[in-house]
Every structure is written in structure tokens, then in C-alpha cells.
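Lab notebook: predicted structure, single chain.

Context: the supervisor wants predicted structures on file for every construct in the current expression panel, including those that have not yet been purified. This is the next one on the list. No modifications to the sequence; it matches the entry in the shared construct table.
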Amino acid sequence: MKTIFIVIGKTTDKRIEQLTDEYIGRIAHYMPFEMLVIPELRNAKSLSQEQQKEQESELLKKVFQTGDYIVLLDEHGKERRSIDFAQWMQKRMAASPRRLLFVVGGPYGFSPQIHKMAQEEISLSQMTFSHQMIRLLFVEQVYRAMTILNGEPYHHE
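Prediction complete. Output recorded below exactly as produced.
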């Protein structure tokens, strides 16, 4: 199973980008993992929120394939503790979908169409984080989950 973390737009803060890349490298020791960056919309400021969500959904749908297990990172999704997320990851990996996709939407979230296509929605917190920070936080949690599942001393409870 391949795990793909899909985000919209490049990271402009090089420090966040470096740390994110570091965790992605660490995750690769445990499982096939990549971050796919979908280019930002052009002239987004001239579009309404709904138009932006619809155009972003068209870009996302081009990436989705039959058999993908799609998980949206959304503020209204289910929150989990790190250990619970690790157990959830283990179940997902055992279920062997062809690809496990984690998706971060644009600044206004996802269109209703993308919500319908997803199998699950996960929230990392009730707080709101920048789209750049959420990338780092998420990949750190995936790395943490892998260390928990492998009994390594990274996570302390």
C-alpha cells in the first residue's frame, strides 16, 4: 500500500518545508509515503469561495483513482489521540487499499463533492492551523504512529 499526502499549494516557509521533508524521510523507513503538491489556483482572489472549492475539487479528482481510500483532514473530522491514530493506521494498512490518500484542502476547505468521495475525515485539532503548519504537524503524527507501531522510544505516554 502506498500512502500519499495531498496538499494544495507550495510551502513558502523554507523552515517548515525542511522539517516536513525530514519527517517524510523518516516515514519512508517504515512505509511508502510521498507528499503530492497540487499547484495553487491562478487568480484565486477573483474567485468566490465556492468557485475556489469547486476548481480545487476538479484538480483533486484528477489525482483520485478507483480503489483509493480517501481521508480528508478537516476541522469537522474525528479527533484521535496519537496511540489511537497509530492503531487506526495499522488497520488501514492491514485492509490493504491500493493507495491511502490524506488530503488537505485549500483555504476554504472541500467542496461537497469531495466530502462525498471521502471514506473518512480526520481532525488534528479543534484549533485552526495554517495550511503550511498542518503539513508539518500531520507528517510528524504519521511518523509518531509508525514508531508506536514498531515499539520505538519516540512516543511517551
